[in-house]
Amino acid sequence: MPVKYWMITNRNVIRKGSKRDLGQDRDSLTFYTSAGSRAIDDFASWSEQTPEKFKTALIAASDRFPELPEPQHEDQKHVTIFVHGYNASWKDAARRYAKIVDDLFTDRAGVKGLGICILFTWPSDGQTTAYLPDRRDARESAEQFTEVLSELYDWLIHKQLECAAGAGTTCRAKTSIIAHSMGNYVVQCAMKWAWTRKNRPLLVSLINQLVMVAADVDNDLFKHGESVTDSDGEGIANLTYRVTALYSGRDPVLGVSAGLKHFGKRRLGRSGLACRDDLPDNVWDVDCSTFFAASERNIHSAYFDTPRSIELIRQLLRGIDRGVLVSARIATPDASIPVTTAPTTEHGATPSGG
To answer: Is 288 exposed, middle or buried, given 0-12, 13-18 or 19+ CB atoms closer than 10 A?
Structure first.
């Protein structure tokens, strides 16, 4: 059967009687695929793969994506990584990942799926009392997620060289990341380290679209992020074609998170971007507060259950221009963004893919 679900994890494997499961401790990276014939949160439904077999299967699957001319790049398929957040057991993460696959990456009546989504699950403790241990786990997990990004970078450069050499190879897939909550901290650290490890390349888009959902990171992350400095946002800004932060001041979870920070810095996913006059050109944010019902209590996770925010994520991944999204009322108005009446590409580097 064809692979429907893909998973990379640094969680340890534990035994519960005669059954195996993923635990809450950090271990080496392992790779899994599933045809989806059994419940996604049942570890028995997953088959472990060697890193090389996982990579080979993923390349083969993406090679079956249709080849499209450049003017149709918005319809190009994606290989997207989903990184879950704080207070998520692997079963919780698997169920959310399955919903993302169903909503965004699976063909539906009148709507084409976006391609392939991969779950990166790290050992969040799955307890509301474990914020600080989770933050430590996130930073340590970022070291291993850096390995994934570095491998992706090497493959991207290889494909670009093939295309430049006229080997008959064309780009069939874009690479993207959806990160939720503290998963953004994993991405933040990993992208900085990957950028540093690759000698801080400029004008190379490793990630086409990064969607930061309810990001549990400092809201001044991208100050001077386009410069070659020691800021944490420089890796993201320099390796990503476009970064979009989805936020809401109604998110109580991130209000608690800010209070736990010893310096009390506001959270990006609650307050939006700080220092708006000093941002990289490829970074913006969207206030999603009006997307949710007045009675919604779980704003922090409601982005993945609300049709309007799901549609916004879909169009962001497709690469629809910011002004077009605002004009079509898919995104909320932002005075700093010119309203556009027809789809155009973002100004800047060429879209990533391979």
So the answer is: buried
Q: Considering the chain, what is the average pLDDT of its residues?
A: 85
Report the distance separating Cα 190 and Cα 176, nearest Å.
14
C-beta of residue 312 within 8 angstroms of C-beta of residue 246: yes
211-239 confidence digits (pLDDT tens): 999 999 999 998 765 555 667 788 899 89
Tokens at 286, concatenated: 């969207």
Cβ atoms of residues 43 and 22 within 8 Å: yes
- Residue 122 phi/psi, 5-degree rounding, is -115, 160
- Within a 10 A sphere around the Cβ of 114, how many other Cβ atoms? 26
Tokens 């970064």, located at residue: 243
* CATH class of the structural domain 5-327: alpha beta
Write the Ramachandran bin of 126: left for phi over 0, alpha for psi from -120 to 50, otherwise beta. Answer: left
Instruction: Give the domain ranges of the chain.
Output: 5-327
Cβ burial of 197 (10 Å; 0-12, 13-18, 19+) is middle
Q: What residues are paired with 207 via a beta bridge?
A: 240
* pLDDT digit string, tens, across residues 79-115: 999 999 987 889 999 999 999 999 999 998 888 999 9
Q: State if pTM tops 0.85.
A: yes
354 three-class SS: coil
Q: Measured between alpha carbons, how far is 257 from 270 in angstroms, rounded to an integer?
A: 10
Do the Cβ atoms of 79 and 73 come closer than 8 Å? no
